[in-house]
Design brief:
The protein has 3 helices and 13 strands; from the N terminus they run αβββββββββαββββα. The protein is an alpha+beta fold. A 6-stranded antiparallel beta barrel has the order 8-9-10-13-12-11. A 6-stranded antiparallel beta barrel has the order 2-3-4-7-6-5. The radius of gyration is 21 Å and the shape is globular.
Amino acid sequence: MFKLTKNVKLQFLVYCEMLKLIIIIIILGTIIGGGFGQLRIVGGRNAKINQYPYQISLQSSSGFHFCGGSLISNTWVMTAAHCAEVEDDYENIRTCKIRVGSSRYNKGGQILNIRSAILHPYYNSKTIANDIALLRLASPVTIQSAKPARLPRQDQEIPDGTSLKVTGWGVINTFTRDNSIILQAVEVPTINDRICNRIYIRNMKNRFCAGFLATGGKDSCQGDSGGPAAIDGIIFGIISSGYSCAEPYFPGVYTKVSKFRNWIKQITGV
């Protein structure tokens, strides 16, 4: 029978420990880096725009839906800052447009151009902190099926376990990566801030988590970034980031709108 020498045993144990460390580093790197990305709706249901009349689709000049947002007045839209960072040789946020007042992102409602975008001055594209932006429309919304959302008070808190209604047109199947043409809605509970901080190993100030920790299966996740997370029609969250989508123990991350209420009023008057 073959027996390992002490040196071989030691080398084998060192190898095992190194392998564990490498796996941990890869997982953390995915969370902190590229895996901590934009979000999409999974596990939801079809929704009608009259249920969520503040929902907008942020689109490229060619009509490609890439983010969501919330109408907060007839001339202002609230979205995620990372959605407003569009800047290349062919496209920038001012060449993009929004569609309001339709359950489908590809037809109906009203299409409006964007005059300007204001990103929060402390937005950090690396950590995705302060992920909020305001889009000023080139002309006012006039269609009756679109109505501005209500906003929370400055610093208004959300009790743990509160059910949020999250909406958007993002990916509905994590395997096929198919987007939904029809607006989707899902309900997810808020999660204690300390638990959220431990999961993502970062300062979650001005953010909160929501989702089903033990089971996953329902989540906001890519394609729906910038969209609303509402409680009784009040927009408490902006879909911001997260690791993967609808995975157990990795909830979605939302910008806490109440922490930016005074800034929103200063810019928009709303």
